[in-house]
Amino acid sequence: MLWKPLHLVPAGTKFDFLGKRRFALIASTAVNIISLLAVFFIGLNFGIDFKGGIAIQVRAKEGPANLDNLRSVVGGLGVGEVSLQEFGDPTTALIRIQRQDGGPQCVAGAQRIMQARAGEGWQVKPGAAETGDVEFTAPRPLDGANWRDAVSRVGLTILDRQLPRGNTQTAKVEMPPEQRAEWCQQVAIKLVEDAIEAKYDLRGTESVGPKIGDELMHGGILAALATMAAIVIYVWVRYEWQFGVGALIAMLHDLISTLGIFVLFQLDFSLTALAAVLTIAGYSINDKVVIFDRVRENMRRYKKMGLIELLNFSINEALARTLMTSVTVFVAVLSLVLFAGPVLYSFSVAMLWGIVVGTYSSIWIACAGLVYMNLRPEQFRNEDEKAEKAKA
Amino acid sequence: MLNLPRWQTIGIITVTVLAVLFALPNLLPSSVLDHMPGWYAQSRMNLGLDLRGGAHFLLEADLRSLMTERLTNLSDSVRSELRKQQVAFKDVNVEGGRNVVITLRDEAQRSKALEAIRAVDPTIAISGSGDLIRLAYSDQEVTKKKKEVIDQSIEILRRRVDETGTIEPTIVRQGDERILLQVPGIKDTTDLKRKINQTAKLTFHLVNEDVAATGQNIPASLPATTSLVPTREGMQELRRTNPKAWEDIQSANPRMTPEQICRRFQPQCLPVLKRVVVGGEDLDDSKATFEQQQGGRPIISFTFNSAGGRSFCNATRTNIGKRLAIQLDGEIISAPVVQSAICGGSGIITGSFTTQQTQEQALLLRSGALPATLSIIQESTVGADLGADAIRSGTTAALVGTAMVALFMFIAYGPLFGGFANLAMLVNLLLVIAGMSILGASLTLPGIAGLVLTVGMSVDSNVLIYERVREEKALGRSAFSSIATGYERAMSAIIDANLTALIAGVLLFGFGSGPIRGFATALTLGLLTHLFTATVFTRMLLSTWVRWRRPTEIVI
Predict the structure, then answer these.
(1) Helix or strand (DSSP H, E) at A268
(2) Distance (Å, rounded) from C-alpha B12 to C-alpha B532?
């Protein structure tokens, strides 16, 4: 044998986990309350997937990205709230722009784009109030093909019946206000492109319009609820109610504190982050299930043992596995945090926390919960007797 | 207990070998793949746009205003038909984007009015009583029309996006009124976005046969009523022989007129009368079909609305023997000879076409019909270098993660049992990669994260088994017995643990979109294949080893 296997937990370890349960309970409650307060009062830093908005990744053509300069240039475009951050390395910056509401500023922006991209002299004005209509005035008479071509440069389609008639050079593109808000996302992107093109390369653009933002938010909430419901049903069917409640409280504990981490580090709460949270839910239950399997087995085997003693005994038995699995998943996720780049950073950090807290809560929340819920070995004894009688 | 029947062992080995074969094209360097047959080298996982670079747009068609427009057309047709049938009416109005409401002067004329309406559109649903007639498209009809419009928009997009020579765009319908457009590897999306907003423009013109009779392609002077328009074949020829000219035409601002193109680059052109006989917005439908008699040649049939039908009737009646040029976006897509007066709104185009040609022509005709405007409601553009960065960082993370996990297993369970666990983990990873290749799933950056997570979690079952074996061994069982019992006792925990994680994975797949789906696919597949490696593959390794070495003592 080349080397001796390492026993992470020496055989026969008898650590009194549940003796510390009051301390753990106070600490966990405090962390969860703080997390909840933080989520409600500071708020999650929602990514554009949910909030709607624009994120543009740019890289300076020369030297490091000048964030202050970028902030003032993009901030002056009339596209609303703008935030900037370095992204991955000093030459790269991420520009975030708030979701566009389709106000008059956007139409003014569209005029600048038309003048830059379709030619001098174009005028763009909002149409009648309560509609999202936009009026274009050409600098000179144009035929239909050139009208279509010009208007397409600002991201709109002009239909034949909307083309100017008679002597006017003004055409109206009709749309409802909601559609104008969607279009204004594109206007904002084009404004940024035109403003910074000279000094920066555009590496990637994400834009989520108001409509999709709302849909993704609903979908996300639905996914989270469905996942939790499915897990509840699974545990409920599979175990005695005390186990189910214990596992659920522990899972909620893990999820709430993960949300707390998102607020604390102001991590981007995006779709990927939600995926992380739901994966944590699955992983958290997974860890509890393994320990519960042990507890059940031991309850049948050691019918005379007291509950706390039995739980401690089971946790110690399963400890090596719990720790080993946590460690392997931990190192795998750690490599994601370290190497997978800025896009997956929020996701990986949340996962990392989820693994640590999930391991903790298996012992001090899920198992300790069993103590408070008065799970008694007698229950099993009675059930077993019934089963034997039935057999006989 | 541990032993497997021979056929199962053979099955396991077959699956493993297949997994390796299917996964290999994804893992080998391109220098090696170049020496392999193409079909094998190319059977790899698709890379998602976030890794490959490219553009993703979710487009929404404005069907509401389109329906209003169609109803307006309908009300025009109804109005003129009522006049023709001498039905007196007070009013014909479009109401609320769903109905056309007709108010008659005389209730007694109701049945005559209804007849006239059926003549315009036999499918329309009619309600109301007395002097009031309410017309609406049935829900079925609306759904059908919506579907047609989206299909049509997809065709217009396909034509326009392919025109730029970009590679394999994906254009698919999403739900009722959305279209997903993905163009991998595109660098500049400015042009692409413009194309989304340009509608196709279809018009019918008579050919000026007097000018054409001179036989000159580009006559030096033309009557004021006539202009030159390049033919589609002519433009395609130009693009092949003179790509530079093609680019100049595409990028010109303001756009070049068809006549300017003809004069400057001299592709094959036709002199057509400027007056528009009828426009594409009056064309209701166009299909590729077959002639009833004469051996069923492939033909193109088309139908106009009443206004279009009338203009078409007038124009064809007086111009039999002349050609009628069909112009789409400044190119003549065909110029059939008028054989007879085409009245009644529908006609056919015959010629020596192949089925493929008629289908293409019918499609081109359709794409000029009333378009739905498209808005970009979601965009994601990833530059190629950003994608390359993502691949690099994703690969590093995956390799380091896998190596760390493997190292840990070696340290914890020794070279032998650690080796078994790592072999199972590796096979699991290969199975996932093979599975994704076979399913044609896309690998995204979150997908890579899913793979890494799978690696971390897939050694879990070996951990469960080994820890049990250690316990059984500590209880004083023999080597063989502790492995067998350990394996057996760990099984229920393994299945339970995987099921809960599977629940999360499957739901994520169901609700997630885009990159998340990539994550969920990798994770779910990983858990499923893991059930294979954990239950049967590991068992095979252990039983083979036990039978071969017959150990009296194990070091674990």
Answers:
(1) strand A268-269
(2) 9
| Closest alpha carbon to A201 in A53, A94, A57, A55 | A57
Q: Which residues of A touch B254 (CB under 8 A)?
A: 119, 142, 146, 149-150
Nearest-neighbour CA in chain B from A328: distance (Å):
5
- Topology adopted by domain B63-142: Alpha-Beta Plaits (3.30.70)
- Its CATH architecture, for the domain B201-355, is 2-Layer Sandwich (3.30)
A288 is written with which tokens?
A: 């509890």
Q: What is the pTM of this model?
A: 0.83
Based on the number of CB atoms within 10 Å of its own CB, is B287 exposed (0-12), middle (13-18) or buried (19 or more)? Answer: middle
Do residues B185 and B52 touch, judged by C-beta distance below 8 A? yes
CA distance A72 to chain B (A): 24
Residue B179 touches chain A, beta carbons under 8 Å: no
The Cα–Cα gap between A140 and A136 comes to: 12
ipTM value for the complex: 0.88
Provide the number of CB pairs (under 8 Å) joining chain A to chain B.
296
The arrangement of secondary structure in A48-101+185-207, i.e. its CATH architecture, is: 2-Layer Sandwich (3.30)
Task: Report d(CA B365, CA B363) in Å as an integer.
Answer: 5
Number of residues written out for chain A = 392
Chain B residues close to A340, C-beta within 8 Å = 393-394, 396-397, 445, 448-449, 452
Domain ranges across chain A: 18-46+210-391, 48-101+185-207, 104-183
Which residues of chain B does A10 touch, with a Cβ-Cβ cutoff of 8 Å?
Answer: none
Tens-of-pLDDT digits for all 556 residues of chain B? 567 788 888 888 999 999 998 888 888 877 887 887 877 877 788 888 889 899 999 999 888 877 877 788 788 778 888 888 888 888 888 887 778 889 888 888 888 888 888 877 777 888 888 888 898 888 888 888 788 788 888 888 887 777 655 567 889 998 888 999 998 888 778 888 888 887 777 889 999 988 888 888 888 888 888 999 999 889 888 888 888 888 888 777 677 888 899 999 989 999 999 888 888 878 877 888 888 776 778 888 888 877 788 888 888 998 999 999 999 888 898 899 998 888 878 888 888 888 888 888 887 787 776 667 889 999 999 998 899 999 999 999 999 999 999 999 999 999 999 999 999 999 999 999 999 988 888 889 999 999 999 898 888 889 989 998 988 888 888 888 888 888 888 888 888 878 877 888 888 887 776 667 888 889 899 989 988 888 889 888 888 888 888 888 888 7
Q: State in Å, rounded, how far the first CA of chain A is from the last one.
A: 52
Q: Which residues contact A260 (CB under 8 A, 6 or more apart)?
A: A31, A32, A34, A35, A36, A38, A39
**Three-state SS for A200?**
strand
Any idea what DSSP says for residue B137? -
CA B281 to chain centre: 26
Distances (CA, A) of A345 to A267, A326, A352, B310, B394: 8, 20, 11, 65, 12
Closest-CA residue of B relative to A319 is: B467
H or E element: which one contains B289?
strand B283-290
CATH top-level class of B6-53+383-549: mainly alpha
Give the contacts of B146 (CB within 8 A, at least 6 positions apart).
Answer: B63, B176, B177
What residues of B are in contact with residue A57 (Cβ under 8 Å)?
386
B181 interfacial to chain A (CB closer than 8 Å): no
Domain A18-46+210-391 bears CATH identifier 1.20.1640.10: yes
Can you state the angle between helices B479-511 and A210-238, rounded to 10 degrees? 150
User: Structural domain boundaries of chain B?
Assistant: 6-53+383-549, 63-142, 201-355
Work out the minimum CA distance from A28 to partner chain B, whole angstroms.
Answer: 24
* Spatial CB neighbours of B376, under 8 Å, sequence gap ≥ 6: A155, A182, A185, A186, A207, A209, B57, B58, B59, B193, B196
